[in-house]
Amino acid sequence: MFCGIVAGELPAATVHEDHDTLAFLDHRPLFRGHVLLVPKVHVTILSELPAERVGPFFTLAQRLERAVEDGLGADGSLIMINNVISQSVPHLHLHVIPRRKKDGLRFWLGPRHPYDDEHPAEEYANRIRAALANT
Ligand code: DGP
After folding, report:
1. By 3-state DSSP, what share of the chain in percent is helix, strand and coil, each rounded to 5?
2. What does the pLDDT read at residue 107?
C-alpha cells in the first residue's frame, strides 16, 4: 500500500521526498499534521532496513520532529514505530505525531510487568545480550 504511494499510484499529501525516503500525512491522523516517514525500499520492520539507510532515515526523522513541532506550534511529539504488533501496514513507517499539553490523547504504556524472583532482570538482560551478540 505504501509502495503505491511511493510509486505515485496512490495519492498522498507529501511533505518530503528524496531518493530513498518519502514522508506524507497519515490519512487518519491522530492529530492534524501526523506524518508517516517511509523508506522507498519495501521492508516491513526496522531491523530489515539496510544499514546504510538507517542513519539518513533517522536524520530525516529528527528533521521531521522539528518541522512538525515548529511548523505547527506543537508542544512536543510522539515518535513511534509499530513492528508487527499493532502494525496495520506491513511497510516500515515511523509516525511523527504533533502533541499538545492536555491534548486528550490517552497513550498508556501498560500494564507493567515488574521483575521478581521468578523473573529476574539479569536473566532478561542476559538473554538480550546473548541475542545481540548474534546480530
Ligand atoms: P500503524 O498502525 O502503525 O500500522 O499505522 C498505519 C497508519 O497508516 C495509520 O495511522 C493509517 C495510515 N494509512 C494507512 N493507509 C494509508 C494510506 O493509503 N494513505 C495514508 N496517507 N495513510 C495511510
Report:
1. 30, 20, 50
2. 81
- Reported as a single tens digit per residue, the pLDDT across 55-91 is 999 999 999 999 999 999 999 999 999 999 999 999 9
pTM (global) more than 0.90: yes
The total domain count for the chain is: 1
12 lines ligand 1 (CB under 6 A): yes
Closest atom of ligand 1 to CA, residue 1: 18
Residue 61 lies in a domain: yes
Write the CATH number for 8. 3.30.428.10
State which of 26, 92, 94 you would mutate to test the pocket of ligand 1, scoring each by most atoms of that ligand within 8 A of its C-beta: 26
Quick count: other Cβ atoms within 10 Å of Cβ 88?
Answer: 8
Q: Is the CB of 44 under 6 A from ligand 1?
A: no
Distance between Cα 75 and ligand 1 center (Å): 23
